[in-house]
Amino acid sequence: MDKKKLGNKEESRKYFLQSKKWRDFQLIVGNETFELEDDSFQASIIKHNLPIVGSYFYIPRGLFFKNRNKINKESLGRIIQLAKKNKASWIRVDFLEKKDLLIFKKNIDQKIVKSPHDMQPREIFKINISKNEEELLVDMKAKTRYNIRLAKKKGVKIKVYSTENSNFDKVLNTFFDMLNETTKRKGITAHSNDYYRKMFNSLSSENIKLYVAKYKNEIIAANINIFFGDTVTYLHGATSDRYRNVMAPFLLQWEAILDAKNKKFHFYDFGGVKTSDKSGSWSGITRFKMGFSKNQESQKFIGSYDIILRNYYYVIYNILRHLK
């Protein structure tokens, strides 16, 4: 059952990945979805199908708790029964806090183990943008402020696009080209172009926007941002190999923050960081994001855990992962 109105306060506390909007998008990319809800929690569930081992249930960012004190074996048993009915081999849950994991361990009979990998970042950087503009600038590291001003001085311009713009497809294709450059440069993988295109087509223009940095009339950086609840989230970004010295990504984030602030959002979520990675592949990304609020600490989660329902298939899954 989907409640049309959860109330502004309750809805604003949700992560976007816990929302009906995200489930609607998952349907478009071919994943079956479910929702379970009572007076203690709401579970947004995505069913993923895998070769050989069948399917598993995934609950992104965990349960949305309304009242942890009302959680019991009967309420969590509804999730287990739904998964069994749909022949899921395991249920993967993103736990935010250890106390949430302990609630599950106390109220279910099935074995729970740490997932072989986390589905979402275990550490994110989220800042409060309810302060005034000058205070936000003071909160930044000096180098971040300098690079924002440098980008402005160099003539970098920021534009915002959605599917309502007549030239949106052309701009989105440029983003795909830069994304391809970025993944090759950093040695990372990204979703397919079709995945992003479906995301823009399925979500409203109020929920998803493409922020673009232009220099000499050329797009040199772009970010996808999600607007939901009380938070704007930086979802994905790409940069060109050209004109990297004009510091466009700094101005791109700053203008998105100001836009979020003007639209009365309270928080800006930069997404994943790794503060423990001092010199590895995440060090530059983490340093860049955390430069926007030098005294703000990152938010850490305990990660993904698997509730095993069909042990034979779960063992096969882990063997296949190891071989791959």
Describe the protein.
The chain is of the alpha+beta class and 324 residues long. The protein folds into 2 domains: 8-120 and 302-323, Aminopeptidase (3-Layer(aba) Sandwich); 123-300, Gcn5-related N-acetyltransferase (GNAT) (Aminopeptidase, 3-Layer(aba) Sandwich). It is 38% helix and 27% strand. The strands form 2 sheets. Strands 1, 2, 3, 4, 5, 6 and 14 form a 7-stranded mixed beta sheet that branches. The chain is globular. It starts with 7 loop residues before the first helix and ends with a helix. The model is unreliable at 1-8 (pLDDT under 50).
Question: Summary?
Answer:
The protein has 324 residues and is an alpha+beta fold. The protein folds into two domains: 8-120 and 302-323, 3-Layer(aba) Sandwich (Aminopeptidase), CATH 3.40.630; 123-300, Aminopeptidase.
